Please model this.
Amino acid sequence: MRGEASRRIRTRPRRVVAISVRAALAGQRIAWRVPQWWAALAALAAWLVLIGLTYWPAASIAHLGHIHAASASIPERPGPFVSVDCVIAMMLPVVLFNLRQVAIASLWGRRDRAMLGFLVGYSGIWITTSLLLGAGIDAVAALLDPAATIALTVIAAFAWHLSPIKRRALRACHQMVPLAPRGWQADRDCVGLGLRVGSNCVVNCWVLMSVVFTTGHHPVIMGGAMVVMVIERFGPHAFADAARALKRELAFALTAPSPAVAPLL
Amino acid sequence: MATPSNVRIRRDIWKLSEQNVWHPIILNYAKAIAQLQTLDASPFADPRSWRHLAEIHGSSIPRSQWPAGAHWNACEHGSWYFLPWHRVYLHHFEKIVRDAVKTVHGPANWALPYWNYTDPARPKVRHLPPAFRDQLLPDGSPNPLFVNLRGPTMNTTGQLGTAAVSTTTALAESVFTDPAGGGIVPGFGGGVSGRTHAGGLPGSLENTPHGSVHIGVGGVNPPGWMSRFETAGRDPIFWLHHANIDRLWAQWLRTSWHANPNDDRWLRESFEFGSGAWRTILATSDVLDSRGAPLRYRYDDEPAARARPARATRARLEAVVRRGPPEMLGATRESVALGETPTHAEIEVSPARAAALASFAGAEQPQRVYLKIENVRGEKLSAGSFHVYVNAPPQARGAELAKHLAGTISMFGVLESSQRGETHAGEGLTYSFDITDLVARLSKRKNWDPNKLRVTFAPIPDSAGQVYPGDLKVGRVSLHRG
Model:
C-alpha cells in the first residue's frame, strides 16, 4: 500500500504536465482554426449580462441600463453601456464569419488586431445607428399609441424583407475587400471593411432592430431577431451547422494526435 | 436499379460530327431548339421556352417582370455547389429538349452530347463543332445552333487556345474542397460557401477550362453570349460545354483517392428549376450517381459496366481534412492593372510564424504554398484570360517563361461580379493556385527568394490574336503557406 501511494505521488507531476500540454495544444489549435473564438465568447458574455440586467433589476448593476421586461409600453432607451452590450450580443454572432475571413487574410501577428479593427468600424456604425433609431422610435411613439407603434414596426419589417434594396444589402454583408498587409494602411482597411459591412448590415436589419426597440430590448425578442438575422444570412440550418462545427473543432483540439508532443503526454 | 439498357449515353459531339456533320443526334438537337424557341414570347413564362431556360442561369430582366414561379438568375459560381447545381440544370434542360425531340419525331432516348475540347491527339476539337458554325440546316432553313454573338473567327476558322482547354491542373487536384482551407485552397469543385456565395472560391475546374472556354467562345470585345452569365445559356454550345464539365467531374472521381464531400451542408442542398409539370427539384445527394434515377445517363468514355468503386484510403482522406487554414506570408500593397501588356507586382514575404504551431496540428500537416489573386474587378475586358507567372525574368519568352507559370485566370464572371446587386456584392472574382511544386522547382534553380516574390500577369490574345484596352484590376495578390 505504501508503494502504491508512493508511486501515485511520483506520477502526479507527469499528469499535471500532460494536462497542461493538452490544454495548451487545444488552445493553439482553436486559435489557429477558429481565430474569431474570442469574439464568440464576447458575444456569449454580452448575452449573460443582458439576461442578468433583465432578471435582476434590483442588482447594483441595474443603474447601468434601463431594461424592462417586455411590455406594450415603449420603455426608456437603454443607456450607453447597455447599447454597446446589445450590439456585441446581437451583432457579433452575425459577423463571426467575416471576422474569420479578415483574420485569414492578415499576417499571423496581425490577426487579432485586424479583427479588432473590423469590429471598431462595424460596431461604430451599429452603435451610432442604435442611437439614431432610438430617437426615431421615440418620435414615432409620441404620435401613436404603443401597440400601434409595435404593429407598425412589425409590418415594416415584413415589407422591408421583400424589398430589393434589402436583398442587395444582404448580399453585400458577405463582401471581402483587399486589405493592405502591414502598417497603418492595414488598420485603415480593416476599419474600412467593418464600416462597409456594418453599413450594409444596417440597411439590411434596421427595420428589424426597430422591432427590438419598440418591444423593450427584452432578451427573448432580441434573441429572436438575432436568430432571424443569422438564418437570413446563413440559411435555415445555420445553428445546427454551427453546433456540429463546434463539436468538430473541440474534438480536433482535444484529441488529434501530435507526434511533436506525444512524448510529453 | 440502373441497368445498361435504361441508361442514356451522352456522346462526344466531335466523334458524331466525324461520322456526319448533321448526325441525327445533332440534327434533332437543332430541331428541338427551334421548337423551344417558338415558345419564346415575353415574359417567357413557359418553363420550356428557350429564353426561360437561359434566364435560369443569369438574367438581366428586372425581378418585378419575372413570370410567376420563375427561378431565374440562379447560377452557382465560386462555390462548392457549382458542379451539383449545373448537373441538375443540365438534367432539367435535357428532359425538356428530349420531349421536344420527340415532337419533331426524334428518338425517345435522346441524350445531350458533350464538347470535349481537350483531346491533345485531336487538335481540331478546339474549334466549334461544324454544325454550330453553319448558318443553315441541311434543309436550307436557319440553323438555331449558329449564333452571331461569338468571339471573332470562332464561327469560321478560330479555335480555343491550348491553355484555355487544359484540364491538367483541375484533374490533379487531390480534394474536392477543403472545409478548413480558409477560402485559400481551391480544390477541384470550389470553396465551401453558402448559396449567397459567401466566402466562396472557384474550384480549379470552374476556372479552367470552364471559365476560359466560356470567354474563348463568347469573345471579349464585345463580349458575346457565352461571355456573360446573363446570356450564356442562349448559345446552344453552352449546354454541350457544361456537359463536358460534368463529364470531367465523373472523370476526376474515377481516380481512387478522389471523393465528393461527405458534408451535410453540401449533400442536403436542393436546387429548383422550372414550374408546374416542368418542375425539377433535386438535392446534391440525389444526383451524385448519374446512372441512377432520376438522371440515368453516362458519358461514352465511361465504362459500360459500373466499376466497383475503389476504396479511397481513409488515412489519406483524413490527413487531407485535418488541418487549419494556410497562413498569409505577404501581399501586395496596391492594386495591379491587367492590361494589354504584361504587368507586375512585388510581394514582401514575412517568415512563417505558424509553422511552429502547425507542428502541433496533427499527425500529418501538409505544407503547401498558395498564390491568391483577389478581387479582380472591371467594366471592360482587355483579354479573356491572363497567365500568372512567378519570378519570371523580364526577358523570358516561350519555354523559359512557361517554367514560371503559376496558373491561368479566366475573366468569365468578372464584369457581373464587379457590379453590386442581388447576386453579387461588387467585389469581383478571386482565384487561388497551389504553387508548391513551382516553388520547389524555382528553389532548385536558385530562382526563389524567401523574402520577396514577383508576380507577372500576361494577357492571352483571343481567337483573332487580339487584346483590347480595358480597365481590369487585381485588388491584391497574396502568398499563403500551410
